[in-house]
Queue: 4 jobs
Job 1
Amino acid sequence: MTALLHFLVCWVLVFKAGLGIRGAAIATSISYWINLILLVLYVKYSEKCERTWTGFSKEALHDILNFIRLAIPSQPKARNFGAIDLP
């Protein structure tokens, strides 16, 4: 469903609105947000997720400093990877 919606939004923004590559980037952003919203709604209201998602808790943050220590050194590498795609 979202792939079809992305195709339509991209076509409208790129060709009909005349935004070109900027329209494609905006369409991609819109598609990502729609995917996020649909996923959140599915997890919140689906009966299949009742036992697996019980909500946020402080327990999820108990070891956040170790996670941050691992995440920070990987950021320069992630930024360089994205720079390869720039025209």
Job 2
Amino acid sequence: MWVWYYMSQATLGSGPYRNSSLFSGYYLDERVADLDAWDCDAEAEEAFEQIRDLWNREGTLLPPTRKTN
């Protein structure tokens, strides 16, 4: 059985990522944004719009969600 979890704003960290010590904070804060592959705002916005449109059309077809402990 699938159980979907949603993160509230209260559970999100203060930054755009949660560093689990896999990368240095400097690299994530300063270097990643300079990478050419990171410059994908237009593509990300288009993908988000497609996902939002799909959700608006078919989201009611999904079963209700519930939280389990």
Job 3
Amino acid sequence: MYAVLLDNNKITKKAKGLPRDFVKKFMKFDDYKYALGARGGVSFIRSMAIRTNHHKLETDVIIKRGLSNFDDKRYCENGVDTFALGYCHDDRSILDIIFAN
């Protein structure tokens, strides 16, 4: 996820896994700033999708986690260095590193 505010006040917004039209219409630049802040939390979005199930059209309501400042696929070892979950830079397992702190 990222948002870029250009010099001509044009905003480029990207959010992986979220519908493009939802990001374009409803998400604001301030939403990105709030999500990355210290008190930023998880926001959930609600969107609709038309899908087929056994050759019948259905309308589904999809609820997804939107913007979040929590990265559940990385591990921060000392407050500065981050590693991908499952990465091991020595002979210890990642669980030994996590529980040693």
Job 4
Amino acid sequence: MRAEAARLEAQRAEQVRLIMLEASRQEQAKRARLEAARQEQIERAAAEAAAKQAAERLEAARAEAARVEAAHAEATRQELAQQAKQETARQEAARLEALRQEAMRQAAVRAEAARLEAQRQEQATQAKLEAARVEAQQREAARQEALRQEAARMEAARLAAARIEAARAEAARAEAARVAEAQRQELAKQAKQEAARQEAIRQEQAKLETARLAAQQREAARQESLRQEAQQRETARQEALRQEALQREAARQEALKQEVARQEAARQEAAKQEVARQDAARQDAAKQEAARQQQARLEQAQREKAEYEAKREERLKEIGKQLALEAAQRDAAANRTTGAPLPSASSLRRGWLFGRTDANADLVAYAEAVAKKIEMNMTFATVREAAKQPHIHPTVTIAIRSDGTVEKVTFTVSSGVHALDDAIRKVIADQRLFGPFPPALARQYDVIEIRRIWVIDTAIRLQ
């Protein structure tokens, strides 16, 4: 069905293509005819221009003849006046007359020749114009005939296209009817198949039900057999248990005698062990109390250290601010003396951040990024073993250059465990680069010192 539809569509497309090709060919022929008509008009205009030039030449010849005639009349008048005034000049006048007559004769000959030439050219021009007119009429008739034929061909093509379109529509309608019939038959076939499938399912279910009943009967028989076999085994087991109980009772009596003797020996041994346990418990309690007191002393020392460090950081901040203010004042005084401009923040080449707060938001943000990198980069494994030893939280100062490299690491407060301090140095060294300063921060400082308290328990946290 699809192949037939595709074939019909291909035929329709081919017919449309042929019609378009024929229309294109006819359009080209029409353009050629229009070009021929345009050339004909150009030739006609040229012929008209030639005729106009011939008429102009004829008019010029006529004007020349009139001029000659006027000259002749003037000469005659002058000659009569001379004959009346001077008789003595008669011979000269005769000679001049002879010359004049010769000139007139020659002028008349030339005028006649020009007239005849102009008449001949006029006749030739008229003949050419007539021939051009006849040819133009013939071309116009041919053009009208070609236009009529072109219109007939276009009408024939349109009728052919209409017939093709009607045939295609009829084929499509027939194809749609055939498809609908095929679908109806397919639905009927599917309905029959569904009925057959339902019947097969019913029969299969009946077979399964029969097999299930047979399996239930077999299972009941098997359960009965198992029950009887279990009953026999239980009887044998009860008898064996009775025999075993008799044996155990005899053995228990014997064991009871031995247990009494063993308990007495164990009581005496337990008394000895209790005395030893109480002595060990007293010693362990003393050790735990000593360790608790040591831990309390360490915690107290750590709290005192933290309080001292917080106060010290506050003092250092105040000192740093005071130093920066004094330096700015000194620079301002020097600039006022030298006339130089006031210093900007970019002249402060070293910055400090003790803790987590500062007026410089860029400095705080960079320090937080450094702390996050240390905390999030799976560095706890480096310090895990060393952190198991008793220690206090160390205070560490990291000096970072503007390109992100570490200048130095300083322990303001040690953890009290050398291995843990070394592990912290290794954690910082493993980071390699902390990232360059942001542009705003790089314009202010070359080196930043960041001081934080390192808390190490189940992870590394910088406070």
